[in-house]
Amino acid sequence: MAKVYNWQLDRKMDYIYEERRPRRQVAWVFDINKCIACQTCTVACKTTWTSGPGQEYMLWNNVETKPYGSYPLKWDLTILKMRKQLKAEHKTIFEAAGMSERALGYLPESDDYMYPNIGEDECAGIVEKGAFFSGIHQVWMFYLARICNHCTYPACLAACPRQAIYKRPEDGIVLVDQSRCRGYRECVKACPYKKVFFNVVTRISEKCIACYPLIERGEQPRCVQTCIGKIRLQGFINRPDRPDPENPMDYLIFIRKVALPLYPQFGLEPNVYYIPPIHVPRKFLYQMFGGKDAVEHAIATYQKAREDRKLLGAMLLFGATEKIVHRFRVDDRYAYGYDEEGNEVCRVPFEEPIHFRPLFDRERRVYRLNIT
Ligand code: SF4
Ligand code: SF4
Asked: How far is the CA of 208 from the centre of ligand 2 (A)?
């Protein structure tokens, strides 16, 4: 085992291969507070990539209602429980692995894939007598959109005995080489997020490819482009020790620390970052997004974004363009996004302009009402 540095844990950890960070790393930020579970992202991904034989059950993108939703069934509870039973809660899944495995994991049963919308819109909690609103809801739920995290230390890649899974050095996208895969399903077992799927027809594994044909031409993936709630931003992050304040992803993740990785304690350095929901009992979030300090800081920063021009400007870029935003800036009126060549690809006003029409339109000789 090699010793590699995991910035999300701020320590070195065991991994089967040496640390080899890509030139730049593909990453996403999802603002959970804005997701409405319309599943447009799910359908966009499904119709683009997984409409073939053997792919029927695959949801490379899914949106589950927390706390009761999960796909496959109990993916998160199962791995959390396994770590607890082994008394390995302070260890990553690589460090907690047994002698014969490279990562602690389990293979879901086929029944676990039968209920993709289990728990949908179901709330947890009860309202106690005399309750009053404090910002945290006593009855609560939230929507967790999930894709492959294109991890810096992918468990799927670590576990593959054929070295059929690779991480692209140019952008960190994790792919399965289908000509090398022999369908041993070690990747399915190892990925704690359960984002590799076994195709029973072709007998090989498949997973989210980050819409790399789009990314290669400077466009964000389908799940991002189609997001109705504008909760998503995809871009590239630099090395964690060299963040660029003009890069909106670096700014949100490394500099303002408003977006957090999902279950960083597993040790994979996942690259989908979530702005946590502000209305949810905090203990639930601490477990999911890297502990008390990280969650409290992210929520406090988010809640002050209205008074913070630069942070608000970075957030206005979500859903503003199909292009990948490499650089951004703000002035008094707008947030501007630029592509890799420095061309402006979006300009979003801080205040939505309001136009009042004259009551009487002289040209057409009609009266018009303004509805505000
Ligand atoms: S399209 Fe956007 S808002 Fe709709 S479910 Fe997906 S992530 Fe949520
Ligand atoms: S989320 Fe799972 S499938 Fe995706 S890179 Fe990480 S370990 Fe591999």
From this structure: 9
